[in-house]
Design brief:
By secondary structure, this protein is mainly alpha-helical. Helices cover 76% and strands 0% of the residues. The chain contains 23 helices and no strands. It has helices at 18-21, 40-45, 48-70, 76-83, 87-137, 141-169, 175-197, 202-208, 210-219, 227-232, 236-245, 253-268, 275-278, 282-296, 299-304, 306-312, 318-343, 345-378, 384-409, 412-420, 426-454, 456-477, 486-499. The protein is globular and about 70 Å long.
Length: 504
């Protein structure tokens, strides 16, 4: 069955960003399967309160995500003293979270496909609760590692299922902004964990990790499952009930239900997709590339070692820069969520990548000037102004970087990942993309200190190079998904693949 193409006039595709937003997928074909009517806009707006409740419950998993990552930073000395851990043992304790997260990423798609989006979130919460309890009651290094690994597995599944669930239940006019709340809760969880960790004991801090999991488990009892997943597994009655809960009572859901069911049936009739076959598809290359560019732009290295970076640049106190870093992150992420449906995905990520380039370039320049400063010291030259400029450029560069990352590069790759994969391959493709993201996070955080030892300025210039490549790739290959339903996005991709085999 041929999948046609959509022209969504009512969503207002032409605006001030017309050239930049124009999808690279042709939009002049007639659809053959799914027919839009004027009622679809009413259907898509839906019951906003239920959608917001679903989103609030799901992003509790996002809050847990980064609170797990951030809780070891402020508690390092206390844990080492209490449990008598060596530096190597504590390093293992910190890094084993990423190993658990990679395992969670590998299995996340299959788990979400087998037991549903809600089931996957429940399973993740159980793993996180078990992990935090193991950490709380531990008296030696091994139970700490087991608990940390367990929480890592939980957040690895969360990192996939939360944005996917939100994208599948949200109407198209709100999908981008609501999915961005995933990133907002991630940065909020990190900030809260860091602040709380400075004022309460580490065992009590472990117990605070239970709070978002409890909210999530309770909230899941009051929200519906993803209608698209229910349609995929053939639960027609439950599918209709869930769709009605997510749409206002007077909305005509019959057409929307027919669109989803026909689309799912068409995809299910296709041959079963294997990992190797995925690389022949354009959507998997887009998802993998965006995650590579997000991580290898240096975010985890810069954020994990921000305080040390500021201190090495000559700032009198690394804490000053770190506090400014935390203050910038949350409000800029909120701004990015507000702009998601106004500017579109492509313009936002390209503006963001331009900003991360500028931030890294300024930070790299500051370390280059510091090296020049040392040379002038050797030559006995007066260079007071140059000495004062180095820490200002370093702090300014890092703050510009994190502000730019927060407005687009942090959230947009996850939004696009949740939108572009067909539901019949979403589990396998999503697992692969999330695994790439976690693997990139580990590589960058592990190599950052080695690179800084090699060349501080060179490290930031390398990261700025990835930002340039991000803009080139997005401008050439990434389509605009704003204002389209998930079925329309797939119709666009299928249509172009039929017209031009080179996009495969």
């Amino acid at each position: 069955m041929a999948m046609g193409h959509f022209k969504d006039v009512e969503a207002g595709e032409i605006n001030g960003f017309e050239d930049l937003e124009k999808p690279l997928i042709a939009e002049d074909h007639q659809q053959n399967v799914v027919h839009k009517t004027d009622k679809s806009s009413t259907d898509e707006s839906g019951s906003i309160w239920m959608v917001l409740l679903c989103t609030f419950v799901a992003v509790c998993g996002s809050f847990e995500f980064e609170s797990c990552v951030g809780r070891s930073a402020p508690t390092q000395s206390a844990i080492r003293e209490d449990v008598n851990m060596s530096l190597a043992e504590f390093s293992t304790f910190g890094s084993i979270l990423t190993i658990g997260a990679m395992l969670g990423a590998v299995t996340s798609g299959r788990v979400a496909d087998m037991i549903g989006r809600k089931g996957a979130m429940r399973l993740s919460a159980v793993f996180c609760i078990a992990g935090w309890l193991a950490v709380y009651f531990s008296k030696a290094a091994l139970p700490l590692d087991i608990g940390r690994f367990s929480t890592g597995y939980g957040i690895g599944v969360f990192s996939y299922v939360v944005p996917v669930f939100i994208a599948e239940i949200a109407p198209k006019n709100l999908r981008g902004g609501l999915t961005t709340l995933n990133q907002l809760m991630i940065v909020t969880g990190s900030s809260v964990a860091f602040l709380i960790g400075t004022i309460i004991p580490w065992r009590a801090l472990a117990l605070t990790g239970l709070v978002p999991c409890i909210f999530l488990l309770v909230g899941l009892c009051f929200i519906p499952e993803s209608p698209r997943w229910l349609a995929k597994v053939g639960l027609s009655k439950e599918f209709q009930v869930a769709l009605r809960k997510l749409r206002s009572k007077d909305a005509a859901i019959t057409q929307k239900a027919a669109e989803i069911q026909i689309y799912v049936e068409t995809l299910e009739s296709l041959p079963r997709t294997r990992i190797l076959n995925l690389f022949q598809q354009k959507y998997i290359s887009i998802g993998v590339a965006l995650m590579v560019f997000q991580q290898f732009g240096g975010i985890n290295g810069i954020s994990f070692y921000a305080s040390e970076t500021f201190a090495s640049a000559g700032l009198s106190s690394g804490k000053i820069g770190t506090i400014a870093y935390a203050c910038v992150q949350v409000p800029i992420t909120i701004l990015g969520a507000m702009l998601m449906e106004k500017s579109g995905r492509r313009p936002l990520i390209m503006v963001s990548a331009t900003g991360t380039f500028l931030g890294c370039f300024l930070a790299g320049t500051s370390f280059y000037l510091k090296l020049l400063n040392l040379f002038l010291d050797f030559m006995n030259q007066d260079h007071y102004l140059l000495r004062e400029l180095v820490p200002i450029l370093a702090v300014g560069g890092v703050l510009i970087y994190i502000a730019s990352f927060s407005i687009g590069m942090g959230a947009v790759p996850w939004v696009i990942m949740s939108e572009i994969f067909p539901i019949n391959v979403k589990g396998v493709a999503g697992s692969l993309v999330v695994l790439v993201n976690w693997l990139g996070a580990w590589v960058v955080s592990y190599t950052f200190n080695f690179l800084m030892s090699w060349s501080s300025s060179g490290t930031f210039f390398v990261y700025s190079g990835f930002s340039v490549m991000t803009n080139i790739y997005v401008g050439k290959f990434v389509p605009e998904t704003k204002g389209k339903t998930l079925e329309e996005i797939q119709a666009c991709i299928n249509s172009e693949r039929t017209e031009n085999p080179l996009v495969q």
